[in-house]
């Protein structure tokens, strides 16, 4: 058995390794499903895709369990870019396409060394995946709450801070000689905790001002407070495999929480489709319909009856004989 330092777990432990693969596979599947449903709702149902959707995809592919997907997509984009550049087939309209922008962003992350293969010693000390998720949440807030000027400024402050910190981390610890990893971990812990609380506090101010019952306010606030599951405090044991499992779950839950507020139109569209399938044909009216009470039921003046109103056979016979 491999010797380990006191307080450290062996990464060759069968139980821990199997737990890691099982948990990470489940979380990766749940993340992929939620992001796919989010894109389906935005592109097919509401038809209102925006930058937060592209950022959600970046959050997904930046997750440690999706390194292979990230390399495949980035390499494919770079290959297509080189091919079109050599053949002179690059049009100005390409720059306005969402897939082009997404590919450019992913190529930039690879060029800056965010990928796992670029700097192995920084795999456990890069906050870019978490920052992509935080930026997705802030962009989500920017859509329904854009009327509030003060809140809009606060959201933009959070966006600028998260982006600036992420790129500063990349340049300092990827393009320059790395410093003490303990200092890196402490900075990630403090900045992560402060930014998590800041992001969770933004929608609570708006929810408190909504004109609705307290119970309904609580339900609306609970949707945003699911982000508490993404709140974390890191320490120098981040490189341990059990703690690494928690990090995988934490990042995955953050991505899932950023997709949950987008999914209600999916269920509403499904209910509407079922109602349309259960609708029965109704005979067209033959003139002005003035309902008249006949034995407690509503029968039209033309001898017909209204849909969705139960009428007994005896009532129909009386109505036909009276006409």
TrEMBL record:
Presence of the UniProt keyword Membrane in the record: yes
Subcellular location, record wording: Membrane
Keywords: Membrane, Transmembrane, Transmembrane helix
Gene Ontology cellular-component terms listed: membrane
Protein's membrane topology: Multi-pass membrane protein
Residue ranges annotated for the Rhodopsin domain, each copy included: 184-268
Membrane spanning residue stretches: 20-41, 153-176, 188-208, 220-238, 244-267
Family: Belongs to the SAT4 family.
Protein name: Rhodopsin domain-containing protein
Source species: Aspergillus mulundensis
């Amino acid at each position: 058995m491999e010797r380990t330092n006191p307080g450290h777990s062996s990464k060759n432990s069968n139980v821990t390794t199997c737990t890691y693969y099982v948990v990470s596979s489940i979380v990766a599947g749940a993340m992929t499903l939620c992001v796919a449903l989010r894109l389906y709702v935005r592109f097919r149902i509401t038809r209102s895709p925006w930058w937060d959707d592209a950022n959600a995809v970046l959050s997904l592919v930046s997750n440690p369990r999706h390194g292979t997907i990230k390399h495949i997509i980035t390499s494919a984009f770079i290959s297509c870019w080189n091919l079109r550049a050599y053949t002179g087939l690059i049009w100005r309209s390409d720059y306005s396409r969402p897939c082009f922008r997404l590919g450019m962003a992913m190529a930039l992350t690879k060029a800056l060394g965010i990928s796992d293969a670029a700097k192995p010693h920084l795999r456990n000390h890069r906050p870019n995946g978490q920052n992509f998720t935080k930026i997705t949440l802030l962009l989500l807030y920017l859509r329904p709450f854009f009327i509030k000027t003060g809140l809009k400024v606060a959201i933009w402050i959070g966006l600028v801070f998260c982006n600036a910190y992420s790129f500063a981390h990349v340049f300092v610890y990827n393009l320059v000689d790395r410093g003490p990893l303990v200092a890196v971990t402490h900075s990630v812990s403090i900045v992560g905790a402060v930014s998590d609380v800041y992001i969770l506090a933004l929608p609570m101010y708006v929810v408190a001002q909504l004109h609705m019952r307290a119970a309904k306010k609580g339900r609306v606030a609970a949707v945003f407070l699911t982000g508490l599951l993404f709140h974390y405090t890191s320490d120098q044991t981040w490189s341990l495999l059990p703690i690494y499992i928690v990090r995988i779950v934490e990042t995955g839950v953050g991505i899932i929480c950023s997709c949950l507020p987008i999914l209600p139109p999916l269920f509403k569209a499904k209910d509407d489709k079922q109602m349309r399938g259960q609708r029965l044909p109704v005979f067209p009216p033959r003139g002005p319909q003035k309902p008249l009470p006949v034995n407690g039921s509503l029968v039209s003046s033309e001898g017909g009856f209204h849909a969705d109103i139960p009428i007994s056979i005896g009532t129909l016979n009386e109505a036909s004989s009276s006409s």
